[in-house]
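Researcher: I'd like a structural prediction for the single chain below. Treat it as a standalone chain; there are no partners to consider.
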Amino acid sequence: MHDVAAAAGVSVKTVSNVVNDYPHIRPATREKVQKAIDELGYRMNLSARSLRQGRTGIIGLALPELSLPYFAELADSVIRAAEARGVVVLIEQTGADRQHELDVLTSDRRQLTDGLIFSPLELGPDDADALKVDYPLVVLGERIFGGDWDHVTMNNVDAARAATQHLIDQGRRRIAVIGAHAGETMGSAALRVLGYQAALAANGIPLDPALIVEGGLWHRATGADCVARLVESGVEFDAIFGLNDALALGALHALHARGIDVPDPVAVIGFDDIEDAAYTSPTLSSISPGREQIAQEAVDLLLARIAGGGDPYRRVIADFTVVPRESTGV
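Model: Treating it as a single chain, here is the predicted structure.
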C-alpha cells in the first residue's frame, strides 16, 4: 500500500479509502490510485482486513452427507444465496455422526467463519446446551427445538400428509411407507410417518403396521432393500411413499427388477424433489420442500446475526408443494 501511495503521489490513507470503496473520494484521485494499483499489481491483504474488521466474509455450512442428493442441492442453494450477498461458504460434512456433529460446533475452523448454518441429524433436545455457542448460528432441520438460535425447517408432517393424500386421490388404499426409523420420536422419519398416518386416518383407511417398512440411512440401496423385503413378505400394496427421493429411486429400481410396473399396479412418490426426479423413467412424483426458501432464509438470518441484529430468534417453516409426475399416473 505504501508503494501504491508513492506511485500515485497520495497518502496511504487515501489508498486505503480507495481500496475500501470509501465514497467521498474525488474521481481524479480514485483514477490515479487505481492506475497505480493496476500497474503494481497490488492486492489487498484480506487476512489483515478481516482482523481489523473482526469478520472474514466466510460462513460455515455443516451438512450430514453430500452424497445424498438433497444435501448436495441444498449446499448449492446456500452457496448461490451467499454469493448473491457477497459471502463465501465453507462446507463441512459430519457424516450423520453424533460426535462429528458436536465437534463441528467447537472446531478451530469456527475461527475462519463469521457464523454457521448447521444441519444435525443425531443431536437431540438433550444436546441443546452444545448449541449455546459464542458465534452466530442457524439450525436447520427438526432435531432441535427452542433455544437462543434461529431455526429453519420444513413442514414435514403436512408435506408427508399431502404426499399420502396424493396417492389416495389416485385411488390407492394399500400404501407402503419406506425408510421408517424404529424408536425415533423427533426427526424427519418420525414426522413424515406421522403425516402418512394422519392422511390414512382422515380418509378412513386402517393403518397396517406391515406397510411401514424400516430402513437405515436414506440411500437408494436402502429403498431397494425395503421394497425387496416388502415383496418377499407377501403383503399387498398398491403404492409406495419413499420418505425421501433417494429411497423412492431405489424403490423404482427394485420394482422394475421384479417386473412390477409403475404407476400400475404400484404408484410411487418421494420427498425432496431432487433434480433426478424429473429424469427417471417413469418420472418421479415428489414433494418440493422449499429448498430455495430454506437456503435464502438461513443465509439472511445468519447474516443479520453477524451484523449484530438483536431481533428475537426466529423459527421459519418453509412452504412445500406436491409435484405430480408419471410415477403416480399424473
